[in-house]
Fold this protein.
Amino acid sequence: MKYSNTIAFPGRVSAKQRLDSFNPSEYKRTRNFIKGNVSKLSPYITHGILSLEEVYDTLTKKYNLRPDHKFINELMWRQFFHHVWTKKGENIFSSLAEELVPKSFYRSELPGDITRAKTGLAVIDKTIKGLYESGYIHNHARMWLAAYIVHFRKVYWKVGADWMYSLLVDGDLASNHLSWQWVAGTSRSSIYIFNAENVKKYGPEEFCVKGTSLDRSYSELSDLAFSRKTIGNELITEDELIPFKAPLIKSYPPIDLPDIRNANLDDFFLIHPWNIGFSDETSSKMRKVGIIFEEFHKKWPWSTVKWNFVLKSMEETCDDIFICRDASQIGKCLTTYNQHLEEIPRFPFDRVNTIFDKKIGVEPQQYCHSFSKYWRKIEKTIT
Ligand SMILES: Cc1cc2nc3c(=O)[nH]c(=O)nc-3n(C[C@H](O)[C@H](O)[C@H](O)COP(=O)(O)OP(=O)(O)OC[C@H]3O[C@@H](n4cnc5c(N)ncnc54)[C@H](O)[C@@H]3O)c2cc1C
């Protein structure tokens, strides 16, 4: 296997190194700048190599952070998106609120100039190329890319979300799909847009799009976003599209794994792609079996970069790794719960004992539709 990913080296040791070397003191001031001091911890958090609680505990103790520190606030956004997913289930893959722009205005596939990173807009093309190479995009560039696809090219948000999810090493169904809804304005009463000036302020020089169709006022771009009109395909000829090949997205792992059917397993600790680093007193005494669920990936395929990150990280912690074609074949075992398991057809929750991850603060029982409501409830419970 070749591990070309330089944004996040796989495994728990690399994760700990990243966590130990991150200092959040400049985070609030610089986080919106593409070259700002962000943690790049998301691939480890998504795949359970680090828990949210561990990140929180380590950094609050080391830097004496208060719960209202901006970095903690961002960790809480992740927890909030999982709160919404738990309460709303599959509904997060459809618009949660009334759509502000009629669905008929949007197309249902990504244009080729976008998938080939050839829109002619530096900020967009460089962001997509970076995504293809490393599987990572800075948060502000994710917002730009999503807003560009939805509002300026009029592609339906779910199409963009599915595409980005499959390519991000930190791809997390809740954080991703709910962030796209936030940008599209399908989970709240406003939309997110940006212009060339905003890119100039927060992006590096090579992202500059001054003098292009994005170099307009917010009110002009907002009118455009609510209309059928599109902008932002700066290419002139089809020829320019030919040379670049987008990475393959695969619904099966890039290595052959033995089939769990032939393994005759019982009483083991199940490592899945979302709890890779988990260990406690009980699990450390058990055989650790990694399982890839084929049915999940038929619906949610991954890029090679993501596959490699996950499999290499699993290799470090698991005694064996298997492919599972039918989850109902899983025998008695113990695992940690993650909402992604609900996406696995026939997952035998009745036979599998699940441990629930600790949350930051006390999770409200009642559904909170907005982050501010969620935060108000949970803030008081954080000690
Ligand atoms: C369109 C779009 C798609 C996104 N898709 C994903 C995704 O698939 N997976 C994912 O983990 N995040 C996603 N995010 C949220 C955010 O962009 C990433 O979590 C963040 O950029 C990861 O980089 P970092 O670890 O350096 O973040 P930092 O800024 O260092 O933040 C620390 C941690 O807090 C959490 N976090 C930070 N910002 C957010 C946020 N806005 N929403 C939710 N959690 C946050 C992440 O776990 C992150 O690792 C998306 C955002 C947008 C706008």
Residues 31, 38-42, 45-46, 74-75, 77-78, 81, 138-139, 142-143, 146, 164-165, 168, 170-172, 175-176, 179-180, 183 surround flavin-adenine dinucleotide (CB under 6 Å).
